[in-house]
Automatic annotation (TrEMBL):
Protein name per UniProt: HNH nuclease domain-containing protein
InterPro entries: HNH, HNH_nuc, RNA-guided_IscB-like, RRXRR_dom
Domain of life from the UniProt record: Bacteria
Domain HNH nuclease: 156-209
TM segment ranges: none
NCBIfam families documented for this protein: guided_IscB
UniProt GO MF annotations: endonuclease activity; nucleic acid binding; zinc ion binding
Length: 390
C-alpha cells in the first residue's frame, strides 16, 4: 500500500499487457482554492479534489520580522546593518514566498494526479485581470483614462487632494485662520486605510491636531484598502503554469460558466473542474466523494513560550504523535491541532476548526492513521459545502 487516502496499491510485478484509456485532467486554478477533475473520452469522472491554498504566509512572515527586529534592537545594538546584501532579493525571476507557495501548490496537485492516473491531456482554466478596470471601471468606456488617470497633471496624490479641496480645511472651512495644511487619512493607515484620494482630506494643522487629540470628529466616510492581491497573483500564476506544465491547454472562466449552466450544475470548484475536464460535455460522476486537501506549514515558527521564552515548545513527537497527524478516535478521523504534555490532545477537522469532544481525548485513546506532511487530506461526500468527513 502506497497511500491510504486515496487508497493506492502498488503491484509487485507489472502485468504483461496493460490497458489504459486516455484521460484528461481539468484544473480550475485559483488564488485560494484549486479544483481538479479527471475525465475520459465518454465524460466519466474518476477523480475529484479541492485544494485549499495557504494565504497566511505574508502574515506569519511579518510577525517573524517584527520579533526579529525587536530582538536585534536589544542584542545587536551597535552591529553594522546587513540588510542590503541578500542575494535572493536581487535575483532575476524572483517570486515572493506566497507566490512560490501558490504556484507550487498547483504543480504539486498536477503531479499528484499524474502519479495516480495515466493522464494524456491537461486543461487549465486561467484568467487575466485588468487591475486598472477593477479599481476604476470608468476606463472601460473612456479608454484615454488609462494614460490620464486622476493624478494626471499633478505631482502626486497629495497635490491632487489639495487642489480638489481648494487649499482649504474641509472641517472648519478656514475659520481657524491656520495656513498650515495637512492631507489626512480619513481611515487611518494603521486601520488598513487606503492611500487613494477617496480616503484623503485636507485639514488645517489646528483641526488635524484636534482630530488626533479626540476633540474633533469627522463625519465623512473614508475608504479601506481594496484587495487586488488575488487578481494580481492570478495573472502571474497563469503565466507560470502555462510555461511549466508541458502541453497544457488553456480555457477561460466565461467558457466554463456557460458549459456549467448548460449542464445544470451548481457553482463549485469541483463542478468547474469537471466541466473543464470534459471540455463542455455533460459529466457523468463515477465517484461520489471529493478528496479535500489543505496546504499547511512544515512547522511552527514559535519555538518557545513564557515571559522570557524560558519554556521550549516541543516540535517533535509527544508519545508518538505530531501536530497535523491524522488520527482515528471514536471511529472518526481527525487531525491533531494541539498537544499537551499531560497526554491530552486537541483535535480538528480538515477546515482547521477545533472539534469539541467530551471528555478531552487522550493519546492512548486514539490511533495514528498517517503522519503529517505539507498538506492534509480527507475524503468527503460530494455536495457538502464544508470539509466534513464521511
Amino acid at each position: 500500500m502506497i497511500r491510504r487516502t486515496p487508497f493506492t496499491l502498488k503491484l509487485f510485478t507489472m502485468p504483461e499487457k496493460s490497458y489504459t484509456q486516455p484521460l484528461t485532467l481539468g484544473v480550475d486554478t485559483g488564488s485560494t482554492m484549486i479544483g481538479s477533475a479527471v475525465a475520459n473520452e465518454q465524460g466519466h469522472i474518476s477523480y475529484l479534489s479541492e485544494v485549499k491554498i495557504r494565504n497566511d504566509i505574508a502574515t506569519t512572515m511579518k510577525a517573524r520580522a517584527k520579533a526579529r527586529r525587536n530582538r536585534r534592537n536589544r542584542k545587536t545594538r551597535y552591529r553594522k546593518a546587513r540588510w542590503l546584501n541578500r542575494r535572493n532579493s536581487i535575483k532575476t525571476g524572483r517570486f515572493s514566498p506566497t507566490m512560490r507557495s501558490k504556484i507550487e501548490a498547483h504543480l504539486r496537485e498536477i503531479r499528484f494526479v499524474q502519479a495516480l492516473l495515466p493522464i494524456s491531456a491537461i486543461v487549465l482554466e486561467t484568467g487575466t485581470f485588468d487591475l486598472h478596470a477593477l479599481k476604476n471601471p470608468e476606463v472601460l468606456q473612456k479608454k484615454w483614462l488609462y494614460q490620464r488617470g486622476i493624478n494626471y497633471g499633478f505631482a502626486n496624490t497629495k497635490a491632487y487632494v489639495l487642489t480638489r479641496d481648494g487649499y482649504q480645511c474641509q472641517h472648519c472651512q478656514g475659520e481657524s485662520k491656520d495656513q498650515h495644511l495637512e492631507v489626512h487619512h480619513i481611515v487611518f493607515r494603521s486601520q488598513n486605510g487606503s492611500d487613494e484620494e477617496r480616503n484623503l482630506l485636507t485639514l488645517c494643522k489646528t483641526c488635524h491636531d484636534g482630530l488626533h487629540a479626540g476633540t474633533v470628529i469627522l463625519k465623512k466616510p473614508g475608504k479601506r484598502k481594496g484587495n487586488l492581491a488575488h487578481a494580481t497573483q492570478m495573472n502571474s500564476i497563469r503565466v507560470q503554469l502555462l510555461q511549466q506544465v508541458e502541453g497544457a491547454e488553456e480555457t477561460f472562466g466565461f467558457v466554463t460558466k456557460e458549459h456549467r449552466f448548460l449542464a445544470g450544475l451548481p457553482k463549485t470548484h469541483t463542478n468547474d473542474a469537471a466541466m473543464i475536464a470534459t471540455r463542455g460535455n455533460q459529466p457523468l460522476f463515477q465517484v461520489k466523494t471529493v478528496l479535500a486537501k489543505k496546504c499547511v506549514s512544515d512547522g511552527d515558527y514559535q519555538q518557545t513560550k513564557g515571559v522570557r521564552s524560558e519554556r521550549r515548545i516541543p516540535t517533535g513527537k509527544i508519545k508518538g504523535f505530531r501536530k497535523f497527524d491524522k488520527v482515528r478516535h471514536r471511529k472518526q478521523e481527525y487531525f491533531i491541532k494541539g498537544r499537551m504534555s499531560t497526554g491530552y490532545v486537541i483535535l480538528m477537522g480538515i477546515d482547521g476548526e477545533k472539534v469539541d469532544l467530551k471528555p478531552i481525548p487522550k493519546f492512548e485513546k486514539m490511533k495514528r492513521v498517517s503522519a503529517r506532511s505539507s498538506w492534509i487530506m480527507q475524503q468527503r461526500i460530494m455536495g457538502r459545502s464544508s470539509y466534513s468527513p464521511i
